From TrEMBL, chain A:
Entry similarity comment: Belongs to the ABC transporter superfamily.
Keywords: ATP-binding, Nucleotide-binding, Transport
Domain of life: Bacteria
PANTHER family listed in its UniProt record: IRON TRANSPORT SYSTEM ATP-BINDING PROTEIN HI_0361-RELATED, METAL TRANSPORT SYSTEM ATP-BINDING PROTEIN TM_0124-RELATED
GO MF assignments: ATP binding; ATP hydrolysis activity
Keyword presence, Hydrolase: no
Transmembrane intervals: none
Keyword ATP-binding in record: yes
Protein name: Zinc/manganese transport system ATP-binding protein
Protein's organism: Arthrobacter subterraneus
Domain ABC transporter, chain residue ranges per copy: 13-246
TrEMBL record, chain B:
Gene3D superfamilies xrefs: ABC transporter involved in vitamin B12 uptake, BtuC (1.10.3470.10)
Record key words, sorted: Membrane, Transmembrane, Transmembrane helix, Transport
Any single biological process term in GO: transmembrane transport
UniProt keyword Transmembrane, yes or no: yes
Entry-linked Pfam families: ABC-3
Native species: Arthrobacter subterraneus
Topology term for the membrane: Multi-pass membrane protein
Keyword tRNA processing: no
Similarity annotation: Belongs to the ABC-3 integral membrane protein family.
GO cellular component: ATP-binding cassette (ABC) transporter complex
Localisation: Cell membrane; Membrane
Membrane-spanning intervals of the chain: 27-47, 59-89, 101-121, 142-165, 185-217, 229-250, 256-275
Protein's UniProt name: Zinc/manganese transport system permease protein
Lineage: Bacteria, Bacillati, Actinomycetota, Actinomycetes, Micrococcales
């Protein structure tokens, strides 16, 4: 590992006493967080704990209730090129008039006005992105006909189009089969290690990325814990967060969380756990 | 009416060469509307707004009928009706499901209002019928200039927002994250759609607007997924339908809309068959080559 998010590098993203509420419910408050170049941060927690909202704050789509969030020392704003965003996998309609390369192309310059000139530079950029995520073989296939895993690779290519300093991933592995989960998470990790891109990876399931994660931000019940996976993913810490007995079992390099309130192992529905 | 008489009523080409120069304006108007319909139609399909187009058309009809009743300009009336309807839908219905129920509520109301205004109107009956079924044969130079002017403005606006609108239409989450004003674009597009519907109604009438704004784009989407080709084909299909319809309708005494809708339907059918043929072929070849993932 070239860079494991050592304390030496200056943080790309900083949150200071950041708080966010949804109606009367506090999602998280007094969150202090520095994300450094090349760091792989997993954001875990039950549904409704504010994981996606954290990404929306970073994307400038949602305001903090209090506190400060900065990227490279500047205030956040919408459409910042510092961030690449991989949304949840959603299937495109079968007749979407886009080929794989066009979808990636929207990531390159879809936000600009007017028509695209269709120059050689544009084509080279798109080809390079497709190559990077291993999607060259289906570059001209209609997006509507691609599998979820293939589409997520294109999402990754879109997100990398601005050569971002931070990759924000919102459950990018959801509804993918194991093979594609591994492929997509490896792709994201490679970008993190080889290009020193920070990764904020929102997920409800840490195991597919357990080998890559440097730090975990665990959100639950209006509280949070940040730290190395082995420090956060423990029975004591999670029991405290959930305010009830939770067991964390380490088995063969995998982490199994047992006894989450109102849920079986992984799909935590913690609304009921809220005080 | 015997079959022979019926065919003679539908296809008459007597004195064709003398008639043709008389409808030159209509043919130009048809071509302009085909171009506009083909362009707007691609976005209508991408944004899943087919039903909305129908709803807008009914309200446009009500506006036109009201204008007829009070003796105002019919084109202006239809323009006001459809732009109000389009903006209303743009403001209220963000999700497709809400939108469809709102359209379902607005549509019969608009149509009912239109019928009321027409019932009160005491002028020429042909004027009433024309609102529903189209009346392009009577386009004069002034109307053509107005129509072309409006169409050029709409197309220029559409061109300016083309790329971000595509982004926002197919991939709203990412577009929003990239700073594309998704909601603003949606409203601008609804406005352009309202104007396009009102203009198209002048040719094919309120009942058959879909043949101009939906069918060509839907047909194009069946045969290609290249964004450029979709637009080109959609425009080509729409122009063929309208201009072809006008040329066929010329000699007869039947309104032009059945010709337009039939041509456009046949084009759609052919495209569907092509797409079906392709998919059965590709399933077979996929089945032959079983590849490891």
């Amino acid at each position: 590992m070239a860079n494991d998010g050592g304390a030496a590098a200056r943080p790309v993203v900083s949150l200071r006493s950041a708080s966010l509420s949804f109606g009367r419910r506090t999602l998280w408050h007094d969150l202090d967080l520095d994300i450094r170049p090349g760091e792989f941060l997993a954001v875990l927690g039950p549904n409704g704990s504010g994981k996606t909202s954290l990404l929306r704050v970073l994307l400038g789509l949602q305001e903090l209730d209090s506190g400060r969030a900065t990227v490279n020392g500047h205030a956040l704003h919408r459409g910042s090129r510092a961030f690449g965003y991989i949304p949840q996998q959603k299937s495109f309609a079968a007749e979407t008039p886009l080929r794989a390369r066009d979808l990636v192309g929207l990531g390159v310059d879809g936000h600009r006005w007017g028509f695209r000139g269709g120059g050689a530079t544009y084509r080279r950029t798109v080809d390079a992105l497709l190559e990077k995520v291993g999607a060259s073989s289906y570059a001209d296939a209609p997006v509507g006909r691609l599998s979820g895993g293939e589409q997520q690779r294109l999402r990754a290519a879109q997100a990398l189009a601005t050569d971002p300093q931070v990759l924000l991933c919102d459950e990018p592995l959801l509804s993918l089969d194991l093979h594609h989960q591994q492929a997509v998470s490896r792709l994201i990790n490679d970008q993190c290690r080889d290009h020193n891109t920070a990764v904020v990876f929102v997920t409800h399931e840490i195991n597919p990325i357990i080998d890559y994660v440097d730090r975990v931000l665990y959100l639950a019940g209006g509280q949070f814990r940040v730290g190395r996976p082995q420090d956060v993913m423990t029975s004591d810490v999670l029991s405290e967060l959930y305010n009830s007995r939770v067991d964390v079992i380490h088995n063969n390099g995998r982490i199994v969380v047992v006894g989450l309130p109102d849920a079986t192992t992984h799909h935590h529905h913690a609304e009921a756990a809220q005080p | 009416m015997t079959l022979d008489e019926m065919l003679r009523a539908i296809f008459t080409f007597d004195n064709y060469s003398e008639l043709l120069p008389l409808v030159q304006n209509s043919i130009w108007a048809g071509a302009v509307l085909g171009l506009l319909g083909g362009l707007i139609g691609t976005f209508v399909m991408m944004r899943d707004l087919a039903f909305a187009v129908h709803g807008i058309a009914e309200l446009s009809f009500a506006g036109a009928a009201f204008a007829l009743l009070i003796g105002a300009n019919v084109v202006f009336g239809s323009l006001v009706g459809s732009v109000i309807a389009a903006l209303l839908l743009g403001l209220m219905g963000i999700r497709a499901r809400d939108r469809n129920s709102i359209i379902g509520v607005i549509m019969p109301f608009g149509l009912g209002l239109g019928i009321l205004f027409l019932a009160l109107y005491e002028g020429r009956a042909a004027n009433k019928f024309g609102l529903l079924t189209g009346q392009i044969v009577s386009v004069d130079q002034v109307q053509l200039t107005l129509l072309a002017g409006c169409a050029v403005v709409v197309m220029a606006a559409l061109g300016a927002i083309w790329r971000p609108l595509t982004f926002a239409s197919v991939d709203p989450e990412l577009a929003e994250a990239r700073g594309v004003p998704v909601r603003g674009l949606s409203l601008v597009f609804m406005f352009l759609l309202g104007v396009s519907v009102a203009l198209s109604i002048q040719v094919v009438g309120a009942l058959l607007v879909l043949a101009l704004l939906i069918t060509p784009a839907a047909a194009a989407l069946k045969v290609t997924s290249s964004p450029r080709l979709v637009v080109l084909l959609s425009v080509a299909f729409a122009c063929t339908s309208v201009v072809g319809g006008i040329l066929l309708a010329l000699g007869g005494r039947i309104p032009i809309s059945p010709y337009v809708t039939t041509i456009s339907f046949v084009i759609y059918l052919v495209c569907r068959i092509i797409s079906w043929h392709r998919s059965t072929r590709s399933t077979r070849s996929e089945a032959r080559a079983v590849q490891p993932i």
